[in-house]
User: Fold this.
Amino acid sequence: MSESEFETRTVRPYALTGGRVRSERSDYPLEALVEMLPAGVSGQGLTPEKRAILQHASHGYISIAELSALLHLPLGVTRVVVSDLADAGYIRVHSSTPVETTTGQSPALSLSVLESVLNGISAL
Assistant:
């Protein structure tokens, strides 16, 4: 880290999260994708880190891991800040958590199994 970068990064990570190490929904996986919602366009009154997340998400989907790397923030801090933005309605977070649904077949097949089969067929 150069001296100028050190001087500009005077805010400690815990200050960005208000001292919180997790929020209600801050257990997002690394690969969860962040999408900016129309409410995020203005970004008025937000911290520079929150504005940077909105700026990166404005170009398309971006993962939480990528945001953490681009902003040079610890992953836990990035998750809390992303969670705050999602709670405020600025962004939507798409998680890869499989959704369990039944297909009416016996035994029941989950949607994630069907998606895996479809992905395998598509790869042929």
Summary: The chain is about 45% helix and 10% strand.
